[in-house]
Amino acid sequence: MDQCHQLAELDRTFNTKGALLRRWSDVSRKVADPDWYRRVEDAENAASALRMHHPVLIPGPLQTPEYTQTVLTYGRPHDSPTDIQDLTAFKSARAERLLALSTLTISAVLPEHVVRGCLGDAETAARQLQHLVDLAESGPLGLQIVPSGYPTHIGASTGAFELLTFVDRLPLVHAEHVSGGELVDDPREAQRIQSVYGLLQAWALSPAQSIELVRKVITC
What we know:
Blueprint: H1 3-13, H2 19-31, H3 34-46, E1 49-53, H4 65-75, H5 81-100, E2 105-111, H6 112-116, H7 122-138, E3 141-146, H8 153-156, E4 161-165, E5 172-177, E6 180-184, H9 187-203, H10 207-219
Parallel strand pairs: 1-2, 2-3
Antiparallel strand pairs: 1-4, 4-5, 5-6
Helix pairs in contact: 1-2, 2-5, 4-5, 7-10
């Protein structure tokens, strides 16, 4: 059963007279243009590898719901608490879907200050960092941290991105911005992002060292 049918069943079950469907439609429009989001979702489902970098935040697919809610609360000060909760649920569902894809290899390179300056209260930050450790140790994530003092400006000048690679087609870039994101299919841009990601990896700690660094931050 697809998502629309599931929502329709829930609407009938709880007798919300279409309110649930309207709310979900509103949330979907706020998150991204439907055509754009369908393109991203289709690309993610077909990709063989997803490589992520964010210069200031934990990337969306790796966020806990509490961390996502904190990010949205800071970034959307005019939204109601209900809208924030709905957007959090939408983004968390996407993260769960990506992490459940057995055909997708996921990796991320993050600056150390993103880990040490994790958003939210102490409990939210600790849960988020433990989530990273859990994903890196026993889940689908290859995590590397660029230590403080190393050239993290390489990624900062590029901004947040996700690089999707495929077995049978050219790579794509999902470039994030303040209103959502953009799917870039220009081969030159994809090559540029691949080069940036490679440079970040070259300066980063090994996966084992990165996990150890995150563990130390949790216990601080």
